[in-house]
Write a structure and sequence with these properties.
Length: 188
């Protein structure tokens, strides 16, 4: 069965002579040339670097795709990591500046590796999030509901997608964010 997936894109460092927005455009093209079928692309947004003052602002977007029949989430993650590498992504610092970041937000309604594992990572205290990373893919992304730079662009491509654990749509999660968080995400 084919699965609909959401991927968040972000960059705040130039790659070669490309601006972050150019890198995002090139990455979307590369993803579209993979086994995935591109269905929708959000507008590009400028968002402040996190933590504040840690570097240049980011360019963010979200895309909606369809995975091929029988294609697993782990295979899609491998495709994304290959594309990140192609565009100079290094994984030296958690949440550090980057030339390209591709996050698999959702894979259909899959919760992985289990509901308990998902809940553990979703409820991890903020101070531990900066120093701990899961060893396996967690789906849906455990921070989707907290991130304006993901939810605001996702409104363009999948406002009705419903989180399989929280039972909230993108629209509902976005509306629940503080107004100042949504206001930080500015269309380019």
């Amino acid at each position: 069965m084919e699965q609909e997936i959401l991927i968040a894109l972000g960059a705040n460092l130039p790659q070669s002579h490309n601006r972050p927005s150019d890198t995002l455009k090139a990455a979307i093209t590369a993803i579209g040339q993979s086994t995935l079928t591109l269905k929708a692309v959000s507008r590009f947004f400028k968002t402040p670097c996190f933590p504040p003052g840690a570097g240049p602002d980011y360019v963010n977007a979200v895309i909606r795709l369809r995975a091929g029949k029988g294609e697993k989430a782990s295979q899609i993650l491998a495709i994304l990591h290959e594309i990140e590498e192609e565009y100079g992504r290094t994984r030296d610092v958690r949440w550090g500046m980057r030339t390209l970041d591709l996050d698999l937000l959702s894979y259909g309604n899959q919760v992985a590796p289990s509901r308990d594992d998902y809940l553990y990572w979703q409820q991890l205290p903020a101070d531990e999030q900066t120093v701990r990373a899961p060893e396996s893919l967690i789906l849906p992304h455990p921070r989707i509901q907290d991130r304006g730079f993901v939810l605001v662009p996702a409104m363009d491509v999948a406002p009705d997608w419903c989180h399989p654990v929280l039972k909230l749509t993108i629209s509902q999660m976005c509306a629940a964010l503080p107004q100042e968080v949504r206001d930080e995400v500015v269309p380019i």
